[in-house]
Each structure stands twice: as C-alpha cells, then as structure tokens.
Design goal:
2 copies of one chain form a homodimer.
Chain A lengths: L6 H17 L5 H7 L6 H13 L3 E2 L8 E2 L1 H20 L19 H16 L2 E5 L7 E10 L2 E8 L3 E8 L6 H15 L9 H11 L3 H16 L6 E4 L14 H12 L4 H4 L10 E5 L11 E10 L3 E10 L4 H22 L1
Antiparallel strand pairs in A: 1-2, 3-7, 3-10, 4-5, 5-6, 8-9, 9-10
Helix pairs in contact in A: 2-3, 5-11, 6-7, 7-8
Chain A binds a DNA duplex (30 and 30 nucleotides) through helix 3.
Chain lengths: 350, 350
DNA sequence: GTTAGCACTCACTTAAATAGAGTGCTAATA
DNA sequence: TATTAGCACTCTATTTAAGTGAGTGCTAAC
C-alpha cells in the first residue's frame, strides 16, 4: 500500500470530510458511494476507507460506526481547499458574500467597530468569534505638560496614529509656568519622532542633564512613557457568540463548554492566538486544527485567524473558534470579506 | 382562612425555601416535618402547605410532587432575611467571611481591580457576577488645548477625580501659539468648576462672543465636552463566571442558558440592572426575584445588586445573577464583604 | 386541631426487546 | 486484478414495559 494519497482516495477523503462537516455524524460507505461521482459500490468504498483509516486520515469512533476525519484528515482537506482558494483569488474572482452591511454604518469609535465586527461575524457563521484591536507601534508625536492644581502636573503623550496617553503626576514642589514651558520644549525637542523602544540611556541622560532642578519631573514623565511602552493591554480583544459553542454537541458536554466559554470571557488566553504569527502564507490566514492550537482548552476545536492591516504595517487579527468540523470554506470566505471591510473602514476613518 | 401568614406558616415557608435552596428539588411534607423543630406530623404540614399554596407562596410543579417556592415565597423569605441582617448589622456583629484576599493585592488599575473583583466573587459564590465601574459626576477641572500638527489641535479635558478625556480636532485654518494661549485662558476661566450639565446657552454665547475669529475652535471643543457628557460608556461593565449558569439545571435548558450568557457577554442590557435605583433601603442592596428584574431574559433568575461608594457620592454597583433558588444569605454576605474591600481599596488608591 | 392510614398519581429508573446503520469478509464477476 | 454482491456480525440508539418511590389528598380516629 503506497503512503501517498492517490486521486481517488483524496476524492473519497474530501467527500467524507465534507459530509461530516454537514451532518456531524460519522459517515458510512454507502453514503459516500452515492455522494461522489465516482460510481463505486459501497464495498469498494469500504476497502478504500479501510486504507484511509490505516493511513491515519480517518477514524472509526467504534466498531460498526461510520468514519470521521482525524486531525490529519482535516488538515489535508483544509490545505487542499486553501490551495483552491488561492487560485481563485489570483483570478480576482471576487465573489461578494452576502455579509450584512451593518459593519459600515457610521461608527466613530474603533472599539464599537470591532465589537460590531465580532458580533456580525458570529451571527453570520454561528461560531464564536474574536477580534483584536490593531497594534500600533509606539512613536511619540508630541508631549504636553501642563499644571492642573498647585502641584499636580498633567502629562499627555500623543503617539503616532493620534492615540493619546495621559496621567496626572504629583509633584513635591511647585513649578512656575515658565518652568513648564521649558520642560515642554525640552521633551518635545528630544523625544518627538522616537519610538518608545528608541529611548535609551543616552537620551535619558541628555534630558536629565538639561532639566537641571526639574529632574524629578523628568523621572515622572519618563515613567509614564515607560508605562505606555509596557501597555500591552493596548490590545483589546472583543468576543462574540461564545454560546454558539453550545450548538455543537461534540463541544457542549458540560465542562468542555464552560471551559471554552470561560476562556472567551476572560480573553487573556486568546492573546496567543491573536498574536502575530506572521502567517506563513501571504493570505495571512492561519488554521489551527485540534491540538495544533496553542490554547490547550481548545484541543477539540479548530481556530481560523486572519490578520487585517492598516497601511503602515499596523495590524490586528480576527479569529473564529468552532468545532473541528467547522465549515472552513464558509469561514475563510467570511473572514476575507470582513478583512476587506475593516481595511476600508479604517482607511476611511483615517 | 386568614390572608396573613401566621407564625407557624411563616416558619414552614422558610423551611421549605431553605430546603429548596439547598437541594433544588421540590420539597415534601415529610421532609419538613423532620426538618423543623415544630414537631408536627407530615399530615399537618400537608394541610399547612395546602394553605400556603392557595395563598400563592408555594407551587406544586405537578401532582404528587413536593412544593417549590413561588416568586412571592422567595420574596417574603428574602425580606425576612434582610430584616434579620439589618438587625445583625446594627449590632455591629461583623463576622469576617472567608473571602480570599486576592482583592487587595496591588492592582494599580481600576479596571483590573474590578475585573478581579468580579472573578473572585464568581468563584466564591458559583453564580455569574457583574461589576460596574464607578460613575463620577462630570465637573470640569481644567482644559488644555495645544497644537500637534499644523492644523490638528489636541484638546484635553480634565474632570474631577482626575479623569481625562481628549480628542484631536482638525482645524480648517492654522492657529498661532498666541491664539492657543488665549483660547486656553478663555475656556479655563469660563468653564472650570462647572459640571457638564451646567454649561448652558448663556455660557456658550459668552465664550463664542469672546473668541472672535476662533469661533470654529469653540464649536469643536464644546463638541468634545458634549461627548464627554453623553459618554455613558464611561461606565464599563465587567462580568465573570457566566458559565456558572450552566450549573443550575433549571437555567441550563439549551436556549435559556445561551440567552443568558449572551446578555452577559454583550453587557449592554446589564446597564438597567446596575444603574442607580437609589436602593430604597439604606443598605444599598437590591434584590430582583424572577419577573421583578428589568431584563426580560432573566425572568427565571434572581439578581442581587449592591452599590459601593467612593466618598463623595460617586458610586458603582456589584451584582450577582443566579437561579431563583440562589443562596441569598451567602450572596448578601459576600456582597457586603466585597463592598467593604472595594470601599477601602478605592480610599487607599486615592 | 392534630394525626394515622390508605389509595392514588406521576416522574424517574431499569431492563429487555427491537431497529438500523455500518462494517469486514468471502466468493462471484468483469 | 479490480470491483461488486451478499451475508453474518457488532454496536448504538430507540422504544416499550414494568417497577420504584416520593409525595399528595382525603377520611376517620384521637
């Protein structure tokens, strides 16, 4: 028996997967015999299925049941499908999916946009979805200090992309208006245009040196900036449709479902899924099947993620979590459309 | 038959409720006969139960099953319990519950604090929990305008409690540094100390008049302020333990559970629960039983909320969502402890 | 007013019977 | 040699029936 899948075996495998995706039930030889255009009897199919099982592509849950795809089986199916999708794409054959157009209604706030995206995607696919806010790089555009109360200093840092961070700092001694003015000049001339990472010891010494008596302020301000740098919570994660998980019996056995929903509610663990994997393929699509996912709780799920981009390399991620028998084709299609919408939405909002 | 509950009936009712809280099963006459210290035979209890049912305090799910409390039954139980609690409280009998002390570990960020609170409360009670961030009133403390780019104006509003709102505004024409300085003076002298609601037409006319050519800027800034005012999203809601709902069979029948978890995931609808009800009782505790809740999805749940306070009337709300047969006593106890912790945490953090 | 006793109801459990889908193997066929 | 028909066998799921037990309502006695 050859190790490689011949064409007929592949065809049968695909038929099995596709059928299982639909029904969620183990699929038997007779079904396949009718399902495909191969015109083979169930007996022949049985022989082939026996081979496929031995090769690890399909699994028999128990004697005298049909077969279901193994992770390996899903994987080949997905890979094969992706190949087709790529070809399709290159033909620019952009089929417009009937995604509802709620997305583009005027949403000023990014948060709301992303939340809506997650929601829409969930209701469209019937899986759980997650969307991460875009990760910007942290280049300082502008710094503004000003006095609020006698010894409270408002300190605002504007980053590229007009994201604003601020904090109120308590001082031990009062600053004159003139002092503040000078400090503003100092910080802006030294730090503007730098990314947070680029501020090194040299820069710090330079500033502290020029600040003279106001070294205290420098310290506090730099602290704020450090805070900005460490602010990974910058990346917010929005989820929706967590309960869709309950719709799939294979995931909804009591504890399993709660665990999954908890992970979605807590969001922290999702970071590993949404974090840059620099998707090997240029589509930016990443498919984790079963154990492939970095989140242990999801070992019986599949996760499909796709990154969306905002011009200058700034990017975020959209993801879908469902049973292994998720409708990969539909999911990828949906993700693509959403990606497009997000891309344009952000371009317009800019 | 008198309409009022005599002492014996009340005692029996309480026994029924308490037993049902524990077991979740309809409770029969024999159980009560042994459970109470009344020394009555099951037959007598049966008679009393029959009365209680007719009076609407308990319900028989089907012939030949025990009784379960009706909403009315729960209500009297809770009211009675609260009365006792109040007396207890007045005796300063502060029993320290064994709530884990995770709460007070150093959390700088309020968000994280609240998130942790929700989580801890959920794991302690086994119900779903929600915590709203405190609602401050919106008194303007300080306004700061400054130029970022040629025609982009950074506009920062500092509110009481040092909360900071900001936005970047696009201008059609350039402003000189001097212009900005003047505008700053103008806004601060006019608006500082006012609450957002107090800015009326008079104030606006006054500013616009003095601004002269810079009327455009005034408009934009006032817009930001209006945004601050309308910013109800200021109130963030944190939930945890949504899946605890699945632990109670009476809530976990398929659609029911999903609907509930969805409401918790979406958070919007929770506002009505967490919004100021000016808790009639001075404890700030509010108990919604079954249909009493404003959220229709929760008609088979009970919701207990409690407001916590930060000195100057600024307050937020903690809430617990569970089955009607929730352990009200434990819940109230937990809420009280958490409230205390939050109160002190905020006081320290100030 | 309270209680003992008894017939009756109804959900739930258990066990057995049945149906049905699917396999593996063998022998026949093209 | 590859394919197919046929059949015995396996295992799950569904149905059916019987049995169990908790609990009630009512009546008559205390």
């Amino acid at each position: 028996m050859e190790q490689e899948l011949d064409e007929r075996k592949l065809k049968i495998l695909k038929a099995i997967v596709r059928n299982y995706l639909e029904t969620g039930e183990p699929v038997g030889s007779r079904t396949i015999s009718k399902y495909t255009d191969l015109n083979l009897s169930s007996a022949t199919i049985r022989n082939e299925m026996s081979d496929l099982e031995e090769m690890g592509y399909i699994i028999q849950p128990h004697t005298s049941a049909g077969r279901i795809p193994s992770d390996k089986g899903y994987r080949t199916y997905v890979d094969d499908m992706m190949k087709e999708k790529m070809e399709e794409m290159s033909k620019q054959q952009k089929e417009i999916s009937d995604i509802k157009d709620t997305l583009l209604e005027k949403v000023e706030k990014v948060e709301e946009l992303l939340q809506n995206t997650a929601k829409m995607l969930a209701s469209n696919t019937n899986y759980a979805t997650m969307v991460s806010s875009p990760r910007f790089d942290k280049r300082i555009k502008f710094i503004q200090l000003s006095i609020v109360d006698e010894n409270k200093l408002l300190c605002v840092v504007v980053l590229d992309g007009n994201r604003i961070k601020n904090k109120i700092v308590n001082l031990t001694k009062e600053l004159s208006d003139e002092d503040v003015f000078k400090m503003n000049m100092l910080f802006n001339s030294t730090l503007n245009g730098l990314t947070v990472e680029e501020i090194n010891l040299m820069t710090i010494r330079q500033i502290t040196g020029q600040a003279g008596e106001q070294a205290e302020v420098v310290g506090k301000v730099l602290e704020l900036i450090a805070e900005v740098a460490g602010d990974n919570e910058d990346m917010k994660i929005y989820t929706s449709g967590a309960t869709n998980i309950l719709k799939y019996p294979e995931l909804s056995d009591n504890n399993h479902a709660s665990d999954l929903i908890n992970v979605l509610e807590e969001k922290k663990q999702l970071t590993s899924l949404l974090t840059d994997k620099e998707g090997e393929e240029n589509t930016g699509i990443q498919v984790y099947i079963g154990n492939e996912t970095p989140v242990q709780t999801m070992k019986d799920c599949s996760v499909v993620t796709m990154t969306y981009e905002l011009g200058e390399g700034v990017q975020g991620t959209i993801g879908i979590i469902g049973p292994k028998r998720m409708d990969y084709e539909k999911v990828v299609e949906n993700l693509k459309t959403v990606k497009d919408k997000l891309d344009t939405a952000f371009k317009q909002g800019d």
